[in-house]
Amino acid sequence: MTSSTAPFSSSPSVHPVLAEVVRSGFAEGSHRGSLVVLAADGSVEFALGDPAAPVFPRSSNKPMQAAAILRAGLDLSGERLALAAASHSGEPFHLDLVRTMLAEHGLDADDLQTPPDLPLDPVEAEAYLAAGGVREPITMNCSGKHTAMLAVCLRNGWDTATYLDPSHPLQRLVGEVVAEAAGEPVAAIGTDGCGAPLMAIGLVGLARAFRAFVLAEPGTAERRVADAMRAHPEYVAGTRRPDTWLMREVPGALSKMGAEAVQAVALPDGRALAFKIDDGSTRALGPVLARSLELLGVDAPVVSRIGRAPLLGGAVEVGGIRAAF
């Protein structure tokens, strides 16, 4: 793993338009970015922009983080392993399992170093606030991952106070897993929204990593993570989230979005995709993902559901965001 504190840029101004914003028949805006689609043999089948340039995959790195936790010796499976790789919506079943996992390992919510936050899902956030809830570390969407990180530190006798330091044994292992899965060195290390170290790789590397997870031998850490996420997608995301819909309705699909409009998907035969929208606008993520899935050869009703992004005028649909490639 290599690290860098120097700024890097993938020259987003030269990237192509991935999505257009059309209101009342008028194109009022656009979203640029980079994208790559891999064939089943791992070769680049389609690309836009500069998919080799390093980006911060944000939470799309979570499968690799979860695999590192398994490699370090924590025995997780099922919903617990899915939650360790999650950006959960903060629904009651998510928070209940986080509390259960904390208790199982002799931890409590005060041990979490996630920043206080509201549930990620807007519907859940409204319900939480209406019930008198306040921002808490456990409610932050990465609390399942942090619980697993703390638990594996306890198992190995590693310092829990510094588990988010890039030099911590766990985080060094995460960097090794990311580089190995991506097939390229980590280009830079930053700090993610949850406070954990964040490893930069190219979109081609990110797609390769997801491909490696679905093709890994059964019983390996990578395959165990992929299998848990696909078996329990509602714990990876939530009941109203595209990652859940896709993994539920396309057999064998592995899907994980990240903040700043990053997305990675792999199919069980090794086809894969990854993209990032330069301005980080998640409103364009669904249409771009749907079109990318079409390029990947996915033919399922969920594609249209994911791609629908209407624009309203006076509470009436007057347009939408559409893919431009």
Question: What would you say about this model in short?
Answer:
This protein has helices spanning 62-71, 78-84, 92-104, 122-130, 143-156, 169-182, 203-215, 221-231, 233-236, 242-249, 285-295, 301-307, and strands at 17-23, 26-38, 44-48, 54-55, 188-191, 197-202, 254-258, 262-266, 272-277, 310-313, 316-323. With 325 residues, it is α+β, with helices and mostly antiparallel strands. α7 (203-215) packs across α8 (221-231).
Walkthrough of the structure:
This protein is of the alpha+beta class and 325 residues long. Helix content is 37%, strand content 20%. The protein contains twelve helices and eleven strands. The chain has helices at 62-71, 78-84, 92-104, 122-130, 143-156, 169-182, 203-215, 221-231, 233-236, 242-249, 285-295, 301-307, and strands at 17-23, 26-38, 44-48, 54-55, 188-191, 197-202, 254-258, 262-266, 272-277, 310-313, 316-323. The strands form two sheets. Strands 1, 2, 3, 7, 8, 9, 10 and 11 form an eight-stranded antiparallel sheet that branches. Strands 4-6-5 form a three-stranded antiparallel sheet. Strand 8 and strand 9 (272-277) form a beta hairpin. Helix 1 crosses helix 6 (169-182). The longest helix is centred in the middle third of the chain and has 14 residues, at 143-156. The chain is globular, with a radius of gyration of 19 Å. The two termini are 35 Å apart. The model is unreliable at 1-12 (pLDDT under 50).
